[in-house]
Amino acid sequence: MLRMIALVLIVLWLLGLVSSYTIGGFIHILLVVAIIVILLNVIQSRRAVL
User: Fold this and answer.
1) Cα 24 to Cα 18, 35, 40, 44, distances in angstroms
2) pLDDT 10s digits, 3-45
3) How far is CA 8 from CA 44, 47, 48, 50, in A?
4) Which helix (H) or strand (E) holds 16?
5) How does 11-45 read in b/e, with b if 16+ C-beta sit within 10 Å?
6) Domain count, the chain
7) How far is residue 22's CA from residue 44's CA, in Å, rounded to a whole number?
């Protein structure tokens, strides 16, 4: 579920790179959120293995 949300946010960010600059700031914030979600997912999965 988290990976799907992160994927959607990354796609929106890529769309923001080719769209206008007014939306670009919002899309970059979404990219940061997507990266945080991915990092949290990786950290949680490693804790489950350990």
Assistant:
1) 9, 17, 24, 30
2) 788 888 778 777 766 666 666 677 777 778 888 888 888 888 8
3) 20, 25, 25, 29
4) helix 2-18
5) ebbeebeeeeeeeeeebeebbeebeebbeeeeeee
6) 1
7) 35
Enclosing domain of residue 43: 2-49
Instruction: Please report, in angstroms and rounded to a whole number, the separation of the first and last CA atoms in the chain.
Output: 22
Residue 6, burial from CB neighbour count under 10 angstroms (0-12, 13-18, 19+):
buried
Amino acid at 50: L
